[in-house]
Amino acid sequence: MTRPTGRGDPGPWNLDDGLIAAARAAAAARVAVYAHPGTAVVLGHGSDPDRETRADLVERDGVALLRRRGGGCAVVLDPGNLVCSIALPVPGLGGITRAFAALSDLVAGSLGDLGLAGVGRAGVSDLVLRDRKVGGSCIWRTKGLLYYSTTLLVDPDWDLIDRYLPHPPREPAYRRGRPHRDFLTSLVGAGLDGPPDRLAGRLRPRIEAGVAALAPIPG
Amino acid sequence: MFEFNLPDLGEGIAEGEILRWHVAVGQTIAEDAPLVDVETDKAAVTIPSPRGGKVTALSGKVGDVVSVGALVAVIDDGAAVAPATPRPRGAARPPAGVAAPAATAPAAAASSPAAAAPGGGRRPVPATPATRRLARGLGVDIDAVPPSGPAGRVLPEDVRRFAAGPSAEVARPARAGAAGAAPTPPAPAEPHIPAKAVRDDQAFAEFAAHASATIPFLELEPMPDFAADGPVVSEPLRSIRRKVARKMVTSMALVPHVAHMDDADVTALEKFRRAQKAARSDDPGIGKLTLMSFVIKAVTAGLRAAPAFNASLDPFKEEIIYKKYYNIGFATDTGRGLVVPVIKNTDRKSIREISAEIADKAALAREGKLPAEDMRAGTFTITNVGPLGGTALLATINYPEVAILGMGKVQEKPVVRDGQIVIRQILPLTLAFDHRIADGADAARFVAELIRQLSDPNLLLLET
User: Fold this and answer.
1) HEC profile for B78-99?
2) A104 assigned to some structural domain
3) Catalytic residue at B260?
4) Minimum Cα–Cα distance from B38: chain A residue
5) The one catalytic residue among B22, B210, B257, B435
6) CATH number for A54
7) Which terminus of chain A is less hemmed in, N or C, by CB atoms within 10 Å?
8) Cβ–Cβ of B42/A100 closer than 8 Å?
9) Distance (Å) from the C-alpha of residue A159 to the closest C-alpha of chain B?
10) CA–CA separation, A21 and A27 (whole Å)
C-alpha cells in the first residue's frame, strides 16, 4: 500500500471513500458505523506525518498509515475504536460549524440512548465526558457534499496511542497540556457495555434515524 | 479574467490554511474541478473552481493562511476581470502587477534597472531611507527617478533634479517608464502571490525598504536561521494568535501608552465576597462571585465620572467619540490565545448578573464557542493576571478603546493605618491609557475613584 509521506503529499484516501461515493451516487445521506478492523495511524487531511506521528515507529512496526479526508491531527485506530461516519448532500460549501454541532450532538444523543448520559461537546469538535475526550470528529466538505466522521474511544489500546502519537502540535484549550492518558478516557471505562462491534450494531440505527430527521444544514 | 476569493465556509470561520493546490499556474481547470484544499480547525474543504479556464495566479503556498474573502486564484475564463464577491475590508489583496493578468499588468520601466523584479513582482529601487524621505517630502515618486548612483541607486540629487525638471510633473502610474521612456511589455506574472505574510527574500526586501523609509531608525532584517543553532519547530501563526498579534501591534503603533499604578485595599470587599460565596454557593450569580465582578462595577462607576476613558479617538477625523454606554471586556486566557468577552451595559446590571455572565462567557471562550457578537463593541477592558501571580502588569490597550486596567494578585501586605502597621489585602492596579485624550492627572483621579469603590463594598451597593 502506498503510504502518505510529507505534508504536501495527500497519499491515497483510505477511509470511508466507499461511503462518500455511495452518498454521491444516491444523492442521499449514508451512514457507516464500524469497529476499526486493525491498527492504523490515520493522518488528517493536512497532517504532516513527521510532526504528528512517531513515523519511524509506525514504519518499524509495520502499522498502516492512512489519510482521511477530514481535517485535524493524526489519531490511532485499533479494534477498540468505533468509527461513525456520515456522508450527506448539503448544498454549497458552508455550514461547517453547524454540521459539527448538529452531528456531534446526534452521536452524543445516540450514546445517551444506549445509557451513557453526559457526553457533551468541547473544543471545536470533541466529544467529552466532563473534561476528558471520548471521541474526536472531523469534516471534509466539498461542493454539494459534507462528510463527517467521529472516532469513539470505546476500549482503545492506550499503549499504542502513547507509542505512535507525540503530543499534538495544536490542542483545544480544555486539554491544558495534559498527556494522552490524562486527557482521553474510554466509553467502557465510563460504564458503556462493549465490545465495539456490538456497540456499532446498536448505534447505527439510532444515528441513521437521527440523520433522517436532521434539520437541513444550510450550505 | 475571473478573480476567485475564498468563499464563506460557515459561521465564525474567518480563515483557512492552504493544504494542497490541485492545479498549477498555467494549467487549465474545468468548472467545478477541485482547485484547492484548505483546513479550518478540524474541517478540510476541497474548494472547486467556480469557472473553467487557464489558471494565471494562485494566492499563497501550502501552509499559508488565507482569510475568507481574500483572493485565492485568478482564472482566465475569457471574460473581463470580475471578482466573484466583494473583498471585505482588511482581506488580503494581491500586490499590483502580480495578481493582475499579464494582459493588464502595469508596464515595467525600461529605464529603471530595479523596477521589474524577476517574475514580475515589484522590487524597490535602491535608495537610502533619507533619499526616500526626501522624495516623499518633494512629492516625487522615487520609482520614476532616473538613478545615477552605483548599481542603479537613486541619489538625493537625482530626486532634486527630477523634482525641479518638467518630468516631475508627469503623473506616472506605478512602474511606468521614466519621462520619455517607452513602456516595455509586462514581465511574466509571479505565480504565487505573497498574500498574507512576507515569505520570500524579494518580498521581504520590498517590505523592509518600505518600512524603513517610513519609520526613521527602523531597521528590519530577516530572521536568523535558528535551525542552524539547534532543533526548532515552526508552525504558522494561526487564528487567535494572529488576531492578537495584529491587535497588539496596531495598538502599540497608534496609541501613545502611559501607565498609572496604585494599590487598592480590598480587605473588606474580599471578606464580603467570600462570605457571600460560602453562604450562597448554589446561586450561579453568587457561587462564582469573583473579584472581577466588583471591579467591573467599580470601573463602570469610574467611567461615568471620567468619560475620557470610555471614549475612542478617530485619528482620521481628528475627533474624540465619547460613548454613553458601558461595555466592559475582560481578557480571558483560552490556551489558544487571548480572547476578550464583553459584558454589555454594565451600568444596568447587578454585580450578581455580571458575575454569572463572566462565568458563562469565560467558559464559552475557553471552549472556543463564544459568539463573535459577545467579543465586540467593548468600551473598556480589564485584564487580571492575579490568579497566575505577579505583582503588577502593564497591559496593551485594546484598540480602538483608550484604556485598559490591569489587576495584579491580591496579597496580604503590611500597611500603615492611623500610625499602626496592619496587615491588609492589597490589589495592585495599573491603568494603561491613551495619552492623546487623557493626562496623568485624569488617570490618577480615575484610579482613586476605583480604589474608593473597591475599598468599601457598601459604595458598590449604591451602583447596583
Assistant:
1) CCCCCCCCCCCCCCCCCCCCCC
2) yes
3) no
4) A46
5) B435
6) 3.30.930.10
7) N
8) yes
9) 25
10) 10
